[in-house]
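User: These chains co-purify. Model them together.
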Amino acid sequence: MTPHRPKAHPILPGTAEGPLLQLTAPLSFWGGVDPKTGTIIQVRHPQCGLSIAGTILCLPATIGSSSSSAVLLELIRLGKAPAALVLAAPDAILLIGCLVAREMGWEAPPACELAVSGQRKLPSGRVALDRAGHLTSSKQA
Amino acid sequence: MPLALTDTERAWLQGEGGEARALAMRVITETARIMGARKLVEVASAHIDGALYHGDSGTLFGERLAALGAKVAVPTTLNVGALDLACGTKTRLSPHEREMAARMMRAYEAMDCAPSWTCAPYQAGHRPALGSDVAWGESNAVAFCNSVLGARTNRYGDFLDICCAITARAPYYGLHVPENRRAKFVLDCSKLSPALRNADVFWPVIGTLFGQRAGTDVGIVTGLKGFATEDRLKALGAAAASAGAVGLFHIEGVTPEAPDLVTATGGERYPETIRVTPAMLDSARAGLSTTQEERIDAVAIGSPHCSIEELLELDRLIAGRKLARPFYACTGRHAVKALEAAGRRDALETAGVTLVADTCVIVTPILSAIEGVLMTNSGKFAHYAPGNTGYAVQYGALAECVESAISGHLTRDERLWA
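Assistant: Joint model of the two components:
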């Protein structure tokens, strides 16, 4: 029998690996994340000061600015984007950043949908995402 | 259910309308697929948030579209850029950033977007008709467009907005669909004191409460009939769209889709009702400030951009006195022109007000230091200033901002909230 593997619904399918970062409050990327570094700068956010760069980023909700797509695009260009986005619901603002990155020939992170209850059950530490949306613990290379 | 395209839309996707239109159609149809839309809708106008410099990537995308010969197909206004072209306020951008920001602004103007450069396009003559479908970006502009004008738009992210303007198409889902515009919750303000409801400083606070409850939900505020002005609705929407993902709010008896509660909720059983108490307002208002410091280093107003009425109110409150602290009034070139026509620009600038046009102090580095205490009457500035500028924030009424800027320390009248 295969062990239970948490599965998200792929929105922009792809593979990724990195440390899991669970945000515990909604975030606007614009005004919330430094586009040059990937550090969370919204002082009212519980994870303020942490970097989203290279993480498997779980977002309970996205709020605020319609420029969040532009911040994500800049993070992608600079190599500071999350390795993957795990969203509680598809978000047309943030994901535009990924779609435009593709048009510009830049490698965009994959995105998948997983309810907050499912996000909370993900293993801590490093996690791998496959094209089908499975999220599993991964050993650090 | 797959996305159904018209023959014309399919032809554009295949490149028959040129490569710019094909690129725009790829972004739009992929968004439609992600969001579960089954068709596209024609839009009558667009407001573009995507011409603000956040890094070279956005400039390169704008220039890609312009180089492909993209032109907007519908009347299109531009939100703020990163440079003040109209009043010449200096920014602390590096020469490279300044050049890239200017190139970005030129690329969007080359696509025939109107150089309005304001986050309050609805006060610069861009007012789509009730019930029309449009594609607007900028969270406050979206909230105002949907709520106060009754036109229909989703919250278009940077870059999707220009794609919609180029094709005059948008994915049909969300707030374009009439059923999704109904209120799901009620914020009842009827028990609050009339004096409070009739104060400008109340509106960003109730907007913040609304946004915190709403997330992406549509709601209605009751008990504000007779107290609303256009600038108050503007302030409420901006605060709500900062605290939540608010695209549409209703105000009973005020906004066009909410003549009464039954209409706004679609005639369904009364939804969740939250009776707003002074304690809830205290908590939301306290959250808008991030410091206990009483020293005020600078004041910024104008998010959304000040209307001509707000600039004249500022002039009236200053009453010929001198401001002891930097005071930034962010506004659009449309309002600067009106201020000049009223003969009051010199008076404001002599008093010590810096007029910032085409941009604002939280989207581009204008403030003279990188930390300190900033006072504002804007719920949106209060929300974003700490992260974007490094300043701590004190929230207060416009009159309190003026008195604090004159004395250099916090002046606030708490009696209204008691």
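The mean pLDDT of chain B is 96.
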